């Protein structure tokens, strides 16, 4: 047996001449394989101008001098690329994605742990990425506890904290704080054009009839005719009721907004019980 069982480090043979050659080769391998950190595992062609010791995991379908070396460690040593074949279960830290990778069934994959405070991303039954760092593909998800709350926190008022509901990855509804600190409910027929169906900015609740005529701002006067104003009140024997009414406006203003004037006998709709 001329090499070690796990790392294939060369042994020095009895009465061997130039023992330093074998010893130095073993040191080079140890330098590559102990605490390995690779710059990337998605590069398919040798990068130009590598520094001494730069190491990569060769990506599938590699080209150039990396051709046929898929999945191997490629280290730039003494002006040339040196390749080492990893064994099942070997781990390496991948610098460009800040993750651990593991050799499983002869191929590299992201290493998923059962805990830890610094996990870069986690995919459950699917692949997570650098944008969707937590990805779950399942029919349902359960979060349980004595009491449980879910928090969406954004950095500034101009950022977004929302729940987006999609049909085959095309948006259909979104609710949350989108671009300001008002609560918005938006709907879309196609994922590209959106209609704002509800805007709640204390102390007003506005339901726009025509989104192009609506602007969000605090005001004490009634909202324009293109809005519904909503009030809530106690109802006998019930928790609450909601009524909606259009505020009065001149026929000229209604025509400018594209609305129809009320008939002479118009009255608000009845309350909606809740």
- What order do the helices and strands follow? HEEEEEEEEEEEEEEEEHE
Main β-sheet description: 8 strands, antiparallel
| Helix content estimate | under 10%
Q: Mean pLDDT, nearest integer? A: 78
What is the 3D shape? elongated
C-alpha end-to-end distance: 82 Å
Q: Approximately what portion of the residues adopt beta-strand conformation?
A: 25-35%
Please identify the structural class as seen in this structure. mainly beta
> Strands of the largest sheet, in order across it?
10-11-12-13-14-15-16-17
Weakly predicted, low-confidence segments = 210-220, 222-235, 237-247, 252-264
The gyration radius over C-alpha positions equals 32 Å
Number of separate strands: 17
Total number of helices: 2
Structure, explained:
The longest helix has 15 residues. The protein is mainly beta. The radius of gyration is 32 Å and the shape is elongated. Strand 3 and strand 4 form a beta hairpin.
């Amino acid at each position: 047996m001329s090499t070690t069982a796990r790392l294939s480090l060369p042994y020095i043979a009895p009465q061997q001449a130039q023992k330093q050659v074998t010893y130095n080769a073993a040191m080079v391998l140890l330098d590559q394989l102990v605490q390995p950190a690779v710059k990337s595992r998605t590069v398919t062609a040798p990068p130009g101008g590598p520094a001494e010791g730069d190491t990569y995991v060769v990506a599938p379908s590699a080209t150039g001098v990396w051709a046929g070396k898929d999945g191997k460690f490629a280290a730039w040593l003494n002006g040339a690329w040196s390749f080492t074949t990893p064994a099942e279960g070997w781990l390496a830290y991948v610098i460009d994605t800040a993750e651990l990778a593991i050799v499983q069934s002869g191929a590299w994959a992201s290493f998923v742990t059962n805990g830890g405070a610094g996990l870069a991303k986690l995919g459950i039954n699917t692949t997570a990425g650098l944008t969707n760092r937590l990805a779950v593909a399942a029919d349902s998800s359960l979060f349980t506890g004595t009491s449980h709350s879910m928090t969406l926190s954004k950095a500034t008022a101009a950022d977004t904290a929302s729940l987006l509901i999609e049909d085959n990855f095309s948006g259909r509804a979104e609710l949350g704080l989108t671009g300001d600190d008002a609560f918005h409910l938006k709907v879309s027929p196609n994922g590209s054009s959106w209609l704002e169906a509800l805007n709640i900015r204390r102390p007003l609740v506005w339901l726009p009839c025509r989104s192009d005529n609506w602007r969000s701002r605090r005001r004490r006067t009634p909202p324009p005719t293109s809005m519904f104003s909503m009030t809530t009140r106690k109802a006998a024997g019930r928790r609450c009721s909601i009524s909606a009414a259009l505020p009065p406006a001149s026929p000229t203003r209604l025509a400018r907004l594209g609305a129809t004037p009320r008939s002479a006998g118009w009255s608000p709709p009845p309350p909606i019980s809740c």
